[in-house]
């Protein structure tokens, strides 16, 4: 297990510092790097010839933005992503990410198609619904999605944290699914100590060493030009 696990409060502070005047990252840049990390972790974990049909479940916030970026890269990597995006914000950043995906002609799944598509046209699921800021109960239109994660036998790749988990204590009485792959972003969150899946990756090859030192977490050695490293 990674040496330091971030609390929700510290994770928020790290993101704020990355996007501060000193850090100088835009949210667009961080989503691009995060989504590329997720796509690379998938490419390392799932042979495209066996897991070509990837259903990307996209939430309404930044975690969903990471998922849209991942879907775009997966398309370029030879996978066939389909996208379930039931609640699409009007913010320019999400609309641009969505258009970038549309330019590659993926399948967009409607709510009434979700269950059938999952059962018959999917080899792999990407959970990009909720990030570390989520708290409380899962509400519509995502209850059916999280329920599907609970019951499916398909492999799941979760972006940063498994959606619906408590960021501190992990699985809850209502949401306890275990993804096969977890891709932590920047640094693993405290709930990662409860991850029991097969592979855990980190996508954080954008963190300055001084920032990692300030918040007391490690930057691992990334192989070659990779943006994701297994930890």
Automatic annotation (TrEMBL):
Binding of K(+) occurs at 63, 127, 163
Report the cofactor remark: Binds 1 potassium ion per subunit.
Q: Which GO terms describe its molecular function?
A: metal ion binding; NAD(P)HX epimerase activity; nucleotide binding
- Positions that bind (6S)-NADPHX: 62-66, 131-137, 142, 160
Which ranges carry the YjeF N-terminal domain? 11-219
EC number(s) per entry: 5.1.99.6
UniProt catalytic activity: (6R)-NADPHX = (6S)-NADPHX; (6R)-NADHX = (6S)-NADHX
Alphabetical GO CC annotations of the entry are:
mitochondrion
The cellular location(s) given in this protein's UniProt record come to:
Cytoplasm; Mitochondrion
Q: Which Pfam families match?
A: YjeF_N
Keywords on record: Cytoplasm, Isomerase, Metal-binding, Mitochondrion, NAD, NADP, Nucleotide-binding, Potassium
Major location, coarse class?
A: cytoplasm
Q: Which cofactor does it need?
A: K(+)
Q: Which family does the record claim for this protein? A: Belongs to the NnrE/AIBP family.
Q: What does this protein do?
A: Catalyzes the epimerization of the S- and R-forms of NAD(P)HX, a damaged form of NAD(P)H that is a result of enzymatic or heat-dependent hydration. This is a prerequisite for the S-specific NAD(P)H-hydrate dehydratase to allow the repair of both epimers of NAD(P)HX.
Which PANTHER family is this protein grouped with?
NAD(P)H-HYDRATE EPIMERASE
> HAMAP family of this UniProt entry?
NADHX_epimerase
Please give the NCBIfam families that the UniProt record associates with this protein.
Answer: yjeF_nterm
- The protein here is known as NAD(P)H-hydrate epimerase
> What taxonomic classification does the UniProt entry list for its organism?
Eukaryota, Fungi, Fungi incertae sedis, Mucoromycota, Mucoromycotina
